[in-house]
Each structure stands twice: as structure tokens, then as C-alpha cells.
């Protein structure tokens, strides 16, 4: 594992649960980008709800989060709780084989939720954004909001089912183009789950959710030049390296030497490692009372031969693949971003 200097870095793609008080009925919230650590739902801060604990488990296949909230006021608090899924820029030609998406048309992260150990089915909202404009009405009116990258040829197959006049209007507006991927949508799909939650006064409420990890990934070409950014691709746009502040994952000398040695032993063009980027957004979820009472983080790199690198202080190795950290009175001021070098399986 890389060194645990008290620094942070940047990665690719997961989001946190957010909390919104409701006064006099159901509240509204702005749309969230959620992806690449940008944006987030703009929520009203409340001093009535404390987050007593958060247990966060991040692995290559799954994210598991458990919260304990408490309403410290003397009356019930009704809130809107929202979970934004990562943005999907459909103009990038994303496909299921490339990124391992499940085939659900709505929920590509298989999001599951429990409140006080009881399963809850939240509401789902999907929106289409094109060049900074919300085009959901036009896309939905044409019957095209369900165009998602779940299988090769899916866009083309879906377009055949649309009314020809409606498809022509989408093309005229630049919302669908024909190119390398036929009938490729040009909008970004923004999806979020939300539900109304009542917090009784003076009682803990346990919230747990589980979902598939959304990975950025790339093959490593020249491991001797890995610096945590330059050779690691992102599947929905690049982030400027200079603006990001250089080394994004605190990749240390030992990790570099391990990668270089593996590359030297494996003949080209085979690559000894793939790189998986994971991001969990903490900074958008700071709208409760005070700090998080106890924050417990577990990272699982998946296999003993994999290499985990991130900028985080105080991680302790607790198993062949796991690293943990516990912080009392935690005030998140950065997001959790990590890089896992996954050892390729040689036939």
C-alpha cells in the first residue's frame, strides 16, 4: 500500500447519501451531478439531526454504508433524503462490455436501502442534461429517456422503436447523432433516488444502503511512469492534472517498484495490472448537526496481490486485503478517492 501521508487526492465515481429538512411539506432540491466529485444536491442545513456514526466499506465490487442518525430536538423532523447515482455522459459511447454495467434500465448500481433494518423502495428520478440545459421534457416526450448503454447496439435498437418524427426532432436538436455508435445520445443522464424520512425526537434511526462500485478503469502501459494520474483514464472525461494538484493517489516508491518489476517479467503487449479508480463523495453530505460522531472506514483491495494507493492518514492493515481507519468527531472536508492496481490473471 502507498504511504499514508496526511494528504488527499482524486479518483472516479461514487456518491454519498444526503439529508434535507422539510418545512411545511415536501421540499425541493436542485439536480446533482454526483459524478467525478463535482456538484451535489443543494440542501438546507439542519441543527436537529446528528450523525452519530458512519461505517463505510469500499470494495471493488460493492459499497456498503451504515449510518446512525439522531434527532436531538423535541419534535419529529421530516426530511427528504436523496442518493444521486453517478452521472452518465452518454455522448462518450459507454457500453456494457466496456464498463460492466448491469442490465437494469434504471438502476445501474443495484441500489438497495434499509431503514431500521427494514427494506425500503425509494422513488427514482431521471433527468437529461445537454450543454448545461435540462432537456428531460423533450427527451421523455420522444420516448428516449430509457436510452442507456447496457448492451452493444442498444442505442440503435432503441431508436428503431421511436416514432420517426420524434427521432428526427431529437436529431435536429443535436440530442441524438449518428456516428461510430449509431443513434448515440448526446445528453448526460442524471439519476437519483429519494425518499421522505421522519426522525422521531430523541431516538436513533439506522440507515443502511448497498450498491455496486462504479469504477473508472484503464490498462497500464508503462508502469515506470505511473504517477497516479497520467496513465489512468477516466470513462467520463478527463480532469486536468495540473488543476488537480499533481500526484492524485500518493503512489509511493515501493508500489512503483512492484509495478515496474511485474511489467519487466511480463512480455509486451500483455499488461500485468489494470487500474481501478474509485471515489466516494463525503463533502456534499455535511448538512447535519456537528461532526460525525464516529467514522469507520474499511477498504478492501480485492486480492492480496493487488496494490491499493490513496492519500489518507492513519490506515491500519487488518487482513490480507483490508485496511481500516476510525476517526472520532470527523468533519469531512475532502472526498475519499483511491486507486487499486488489479493483478491480471495469466492463463
The 3D shape can be described as flat
C-alpha end-to-end distance = 26 Å
* Total number of distinct structural domains: 2
CATH class of the largest domain: Mainly Beta
Order of helices and strands: EEEEEHEEEEHHHEEEEEHHEEEEEE
Structural category:
mainly beta
Strand portion, in percent?
25-35%
Describe the biggest sheet? 8 strands, mixed
**Nearest-integer average pLDDT:** 73
Total beta strands? 20
Number of helices: 6
Under CATH, the topology of the largest domain can be stated as: Immunoglobulin-like
Widest beta sheet: strand line-up = 7-6-13-3-2-16-19-18
Radius of gyration: 21 Å
Question: Percent range for helical residues?
Answer: 10-25%
Poorly predicted runs are 2-43, 95-100, 221-246
**What is the level-2 CATH architecture name of the largest domain?**
Sandwich
What does this structure look like?
With 347 residues, the protein is mainly beta. It is 12% helix and 35% strand. It is built from 6 helices and 20 strands. It has helices spanning 96-99, 136-141, 154-160, 164-172, 241-244, 253-265, and strands at 18-21, 49-58, 62-71, 77-84, 88-89, 112-115, 118-120, 123-130, 133-134, 176-177, 184-185, 188-199, 204-212, 216-219, 273-280, 292-300, 307-310, 316-317, 322-330, 336-343. The protein has an 8-stranded mixed sheet, with no helix packed on it. Strand 6 (112-115) and strand 7 (118-120) form a beta hairpin. It starts with 17 loop residues before the first strand and ends with a strand. This is DUF4424 domain-containing protein. Residues 29-339 form the DUF4424 domain. Pfam families: DUF4424 (PF14415).
Amino acid at each position: 500500500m502507498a504511504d499514508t501521508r496526511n494528504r488527499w487526492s482524486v479518483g472516479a465515481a461514487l456518491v454519498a447519501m444526503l439529508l434535507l429538512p422539510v418545512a411545511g411539506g415536501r421540499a425541493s432540491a436542485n439536480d446533482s451531478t454526483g459524478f467525478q466529485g463535482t456538484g451535489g444536491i443543494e440542501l438546507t442545513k439542519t441543527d436537529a439531526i446528528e450523525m452519530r456514526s458512519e461505517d463505510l466499506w469500499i470494495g471493488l465490487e460493492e459499497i456498503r454504508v451504515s449510518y446512525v442518525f439522531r434527532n436531538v430536538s423535541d419534535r419529529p423532523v421530516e426530511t427528504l433524503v436523496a442518493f444521486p447515482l453517478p452521472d452518465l455522459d452518454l455522448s462518450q459511447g459507454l457500453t456494457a462490455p466496456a464498463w460492466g454495467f448491469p442490465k437494469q434500465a434504471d438502476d445501474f448500481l443495484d441500489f438497495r436501502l434499509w431503514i431500521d433494518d427494514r427494506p425500503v423502495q425509494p422513488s427514482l428520478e431521471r433527468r437529461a442534461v445537454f450543454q448545461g440545459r435540462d432537456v428531460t421534457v423533450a427527451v421523455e416526450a420522444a420516448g428516449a429517456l430509457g436510452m442507456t448503454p447496457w448492451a452493444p447496439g442498444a442505442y440503435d435498437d432503441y431508436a428503431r422503436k421511436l416514432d420517426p418524427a420524434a427521432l428526427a426532432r431529437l436529431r435536429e436538436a443535436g440530442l441524438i447523432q449518428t456516428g461510430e455508435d449509431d443513434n448515440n445520445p448526446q445528453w448526460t443522464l442524471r439519476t437519483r433516488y429519494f425518499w421522505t424520512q421522519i426522525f422521531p425526537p430523541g431516538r436513533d434511526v439506522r440507515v443502511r444502503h448497498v450498491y455496486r462500485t462504479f469504477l473508472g478503469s484503464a490498462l497500464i502501459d508503462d508502469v515506470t511512469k505511473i504517477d497516479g494520474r497520467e496513465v489512468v483514464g477516466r470513462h467520463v472525461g478527463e480532469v486536468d492534472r495540473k488543476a488537480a494538484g499533481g500526484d492524485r493517489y500518493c503512489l509511493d516508491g515501493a508500489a512503483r517498484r512492484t509495478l515496474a518489476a511485474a511489467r519487466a517479467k511480463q512480455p509486451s503487449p500483455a499488461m500485468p495490472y489494470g487500474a481501478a479508480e474509485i471515489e466516494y463523495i463525503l463533502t456534499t453530505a455535511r448538512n447535519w448537526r456537528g461532526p460525525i460522531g464516529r467514522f469507520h472506514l474499511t477498504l478492501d483491495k480485492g486480492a492480496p496481490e493487488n496494490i491499493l494507493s490513496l492519500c489518507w492518514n492513519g490506515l491500519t492493515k487488518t487482513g490480507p486485503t483490508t485496511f481500516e481507519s476510525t476517526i472520532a468527531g470527523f468533519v469531512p472536508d475532502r472526498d475519499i478517492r483511491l486507486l487499486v492496481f488489479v493483478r491480471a490473471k495469466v492463463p
